[in-house]
Design goal:
48% of the residues lie in helices and 16% in strands. The chain has two domains: 228 residues, Malonyl-Coenzyme A Acyl Carrier Protein, domain 2 (3-Layer(aba) Sandwich), CATH 3.40.366.10; 67 residues, 2-Layer Sandwich (Alpha-Beta Plaits). The chain is α/β, with parallel strands linked by helices.
């Protein structure tokens, strides 16, 4: 059995995420307190109480990172550790913390700034993202190129076979949508997001993030981390800064990243953090692997029980 941890990305957040585990586990409370101290704000209130901030990118990102790393600490307490890690977009920061490249305090402060930079890069309402179902990569890429005559539009997330997210300026995404419907897309679903993430429009955010990264000390990797941007193993800490800079404005190669991990011998994926989006993607990428997720007590118990059964 070779285990990979995959960490939730933005969009997985919901009110109350992590609350049950927080109430029952000191190690989870410690991580939340650590994040609250680092950001000088109450992370329990942000994650558990009804509020508008949780869906604002600046706050979503540290909230998901906190919940993910709290669950990670709980899994470690139960003796569950990965041999390789990856995360979707924001989730890559959780993977880098797990691999020892970034300490948690630095990471939670950094992703709050990252969220702010991403929010400010494109004026509200100018950008759009849509999930395209039922078409291959080439068809989607060609439609985006054809629609780019009126503005930026490009693939942003290669999630799984038959689902690719496109993003860009609203008018260009609308034109690409019409072209893709003509080409036989099964469904095209507009996403509720605050900007056209993982496109060239995010270059201002990438540049600001690059400045922040210059001041941060990165450590050697103690686990293989699969990069969103290349779908390859990051082998050198010197590569982390340029990859994180590019990641903001480059498409997320999630399907390719999962296949890289499977090629490395991974047969068991555990989604760590809120939601089950990554589990559903992996299921469509390869039905022969074991897929588990941990976001509450029930899923934690199921994961521990399943792993015990697999190791006997």
């Amino acid at each position: 059995m070779k285990i990979a941890f995959v960490y939730s990305g933005q969009g997985a957040q919901y009110q109350g995420m992590g609350q049950e585990l927080y109430e029952n586990n000191q190690v989870v409370r410690d991580v939340f307190q650590h994040a609250s101290d680092a950001l000088k704000m109450d992370m329990t209130s942000l994650c558990f109480d009804e509020n508008e901030q949780l869906n604002q990118t600046t706050y979503t990102q540290p909230a998901i990172l906190t919940v993910s790393m709290a669950i990670d600490a709980l899994l470690k307490e139960h003796g569950v550790v990965p041999e390789v890690v990856a995360g979707l977009s924001l989730g890559e920061y959780s993977a880098l913390v797990k691999a020892g490249v970034l300490d948690f305090t630095t990471a939670v402060q950094l992703v709050k700034k990252r969220g702010q930079f991403m929010t400010e890069a494109v004026p509200a309402g100018d950008g759009a993202m849509s999930a395209v179902m039922g078409l291959d990569r080439n068809t989607i890429e060609e439609a985006c190129i054809a629609a780019s005559d009126i503005g930026v539009v490009s693939p942003a997330n290669y999630n799984m076979p038959g689902q690719i997210v496109i993003a860009g300026l609203k008018e260009a995404v609308a034109k690409a949508t019409l072209l893709l419907e003509e080409k036989g897309a099964k469904r095209i679903i507009p996403l509720q997001v605050s900007g056209p993430f993982h496109t060239a429009l995010l270059k201002p955010a990438a540049m600001e993030l690059a400045n922040e990264l210059e001041a941060i000390e990165f450590h050697e990797l103690n686990l293989p981390v699969i990069s969103n941007t290349t779908a390859k193993i990051i082998t050198d800490k010197a590569d982390v800064k340029p990859l994180l800079t590019r990641q903001v404005m480059s498409p997320v190669l999630w399907e390719d990243s999962v296949n890289t991990m499977i090629d490395m011998g991974v047969d068991t994926f555990i989604e760590v953090g809120p939601g089950k989006a990554l589990s559903s993607f992996i299921k469509k990428i390869n039905r022969n692997v074991t897929i588990l997720n941990v976001e509450n007590q029930k899923t934690l118990d199921k994961t521990i029980e399943t792993l015990k059964g697999m190791s006997t």
